Structures are given as C-alpha cells and as structure tokens.
Amino acid sequence: MSIRASSSGARTPLLLAGLAALALAGCQSTSREITGSIRRPAAGASFDRMTQTELRSATETYGTAYEKNPKDKQAGMSYASLLQMTGRNDQSLAVMRQIAIANSKDRDVLAAYGKALAAAGDLPKALETVRRAQTPDYPDWRLLSAEGAILDQLGRSDEARVAYRKALDIQPNEPSVLSNLGMSYVLTNDLKSAETYLRQAAERPGADSRVRQNLALVVGLQGRFDEAERIAGAELSPEDATANVAYLRKMLAQQNTWAALKDEKQAPPPKS
Asked: Which SUPFAM superfamilies match (predicted)?
C-alpha cells in the first residue's frame, strides 16, 4: 500500500492510506510492485515513499517524457500512476486512454487503464476493461487481482474473493494478491481473516512496505496498538509510526467507526 505524502512532506496516516489504496495495485504491470508489493510500471521507480515535493518533481519529469512521446508505454503508465498519487485522477485517465489506444492489445496497459477508470470513479467501465483484457485460455493473475479490487469497490466482496483465489491458483502465495484478499476482508469487518491473509502476504519474499503497513492497519483496528506500532515502526520513522497509530486510536475512539472509515476512504488527497 502506498503512504501518500502531505503538503508538509510528511506522509498521511496509515489508516487513510491503507483504505484509499485498497488493492488496485493488483493492476500494476510487474509482479513485485502491492497492493500490493508490486513495483510501479517505471523500471525501479519507487514513488510510494516520496514526499509531496518529490512527487511533484517526478510528475513533471515523467510528464515531459510523455509529452515528447505520448505512445511511450512506460513513460505514460508511470506518469498516469503519479497523477493518481497526487489526486489528478481525471488527467491520469486521459493519459491512460491515449496509452491504451496506442497499445490496444497490451494486457498490462489495459489493466492500468482499468485502474485509472476505477480511480476516476467509473467502476463499471473499469471492470469491463479489465475483463476484456483477460484471455480465458491463458488468464493473467494480475488482471484477476485487479478485477477483484474493482469488485470490492463495487461492494461485491464474494465475487472479488473468487477472483483473488483464481489469481492465487495461477500465482500461489503472491503477496500482492494475498494483501488484496486481506484488505477485502477489512471492508466487511472480518478483521481476523484479514490479519490471516496479510500475515501470509507479509511473510512472502517480495512483500514490500505497503503489505506490512496494511498488516499494521489491521492489527491496529483490532486494538493492538503497541503491536501495530512495532510493525509500522519497522519501516517508518518513529515519528511517522507514532502518528499512524495515534490516528488509528482517534478514529476507533469515535462512534460509527466503520462509517467513518468509509468516509475516509472517499476523502481526497491533501492539497499542497
């Protein structure tokens, strides 16, 4: 999961980032990016740990590359991903639409286009796009994971979990899919199941920071704040880890916590 940067250069709390980032990382083009644990389309680029200032700089750099060659798959996908991270979902969708036109049979591109559609709020079309990219005779686990993430956002959790398990049949123990499956259970308040899958994901080789931060989120939601802080603090600065857990405590102390969580999931990214 990615920790979105705030205008001050610090990252927003774990809770908001975890729910907002729910699993569309399953759409990414390489197997080591999620939602997990998967890398972003740009070769070796690590956008998820950037501050807002660094994100703006990277967005400008990739934007320039895309402007020079709008058909460049990698530049376009990276630019679209950065635009999403800075809340510019409509622009990200416009970029991915052009990349999809130029690469109409590329399944990675169509998966990323589906992600952009979902981020822009067009979930039915996102689902249609991801499913259209799939080939029944040679199914792609990343597309299945992306399909599951979109179904989760549509409130169709049972169908989403079928898609995740099909993805795991193809790519056993893939941390990004396990993390997505875990976060699916978060949305239905089955925190024990969520923790089971997220722990499995966190223990797999290739699991990145976002998987472990998702695990910290679920542990915190169960009231085990010291443990959540240890998990988060293993990779975050002490200040950020403490801020994440403090935010969890504040949210869970409120009434109607799950309604509040859903509201947070829909909140726009902070403005710089």
From this structure: TPR-like (SSF48452)
Using DSSP, state whether 191 is helix, strand or coil.
helix
- What structural domains does the chain harbor? 14-265 (1.25.40.10)
Amino acid identity, position 110: L
Can you tell me the distance from the alpha carbon of 27 to that of 174, in angstroms, rounded to the nearest whole number?
13
Residues 121 and 92: their CA atoms lie apart, in Å, by 12
Counting Cβ atoms within 10 Å, is residue 263 exposed (0-12), middle (13-18) or buried (19+)?
Answer: exposed
Residue 27 DSSP label: G
Percent of the chain past pLDDT 70, that is, above it, reads: 72
269 touches 86 (CB < 8 A)? yes
Contact indicator for 79, 63 with CB cutoff of 8 Å:
yes
Average pLDDT score, the chain? 78
What is the value of pTM for the model shown? 0.72
* Spatial CA neighbour of 5 closest among 244, 229, 272: 272
- Upper half-sphere CA count for residue 40 (Cβ side, 13 Å): 22
CA angle, 154 as apex, 148 and 158 as ends, to 5°? 55
Q: Which residues contact 150 (CB under 8 A, 6 or more apart)?
A: 24, 114, 118, 123, 126, 127, 130, 160
Residue type, 154: L
Q: What is the mean pLDDT of residues 146-172?
A: 96
Q: Are 244 and 13 in contact (CB under 8 A)?
A: yes
